[in-house]
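Design a sequence for this backbone.
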């Protein structure tokens, strides 16, 4: 299993990783069993060498096999831990990509709303300028009309004064004619 995890075939690695994730107790037991077997072989070799009952080549073979098995078990444990870390990293990376995509969407929406608000503000500014120009024109017109009204009132008063003067001067003669 350790050699399959180290291989380049990603599908096989994912299959083994998924199996190991589903069966963590079995993986732990097999790891402990392998270490126990390696320890037993090493102790058997050590005892056989001390007592002198075992064949040297068989004991050496068993000890070498036990050490290789223990090394592979340790490698398997490290590989499974790395795979778990990698899976967490991939999940975090995928979640951050989703969050980034959502943030970009929200940012684009906010930018669009900002552009619309800026255009709306510009329209209101133009409307305000037009209204200010209209108010200024109405004020000028009102001032000129007020001046004209005052001039007409003054002229009316002047004409009434002239009329009353004519009445005074010609008033006696008019009364005589009537």
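Sequence:
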């Amino acid at each position: 299993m350790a050699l399959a995890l180290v291989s380049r075939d990603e599908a096989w690695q994912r299959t083994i990783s998924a199996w190991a994730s589903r069966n963590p107790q079995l993986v732990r037991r097999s790891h402990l069993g392998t270490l126990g077997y390696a320890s037993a072989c090493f102790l058997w070799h050590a005892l056989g060498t001390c007592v002198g009952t075992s064949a040297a080549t068989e004991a050496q073979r068993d000890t070498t096999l036990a050490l290789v098995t223990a090394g592979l078990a340790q490698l398997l444990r490290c590989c499974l831990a790395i795979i778990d870390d990698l899976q967490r990293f991939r999940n975090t990376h995928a979640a951050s990509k989703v969050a980034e995509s959502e943030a970009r969407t929200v940012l684009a929406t906010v930018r669009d709303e900002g552009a619309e608000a800026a255009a709306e503000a510009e329209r209101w500014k133009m409307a305000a300028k037009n209204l200010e120009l209209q108010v200024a024109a109405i004020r000028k017109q009102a001032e000129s009309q007020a001046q004209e009204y005052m001039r007409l009132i003054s002229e009316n008063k002047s004409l009434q004064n002239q009329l009353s003067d004519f009445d005074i001067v010609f008033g006696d003669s008019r009364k005589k004619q009537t």
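The CA atoms of residues 75 and 81 lie 10 Å apart.
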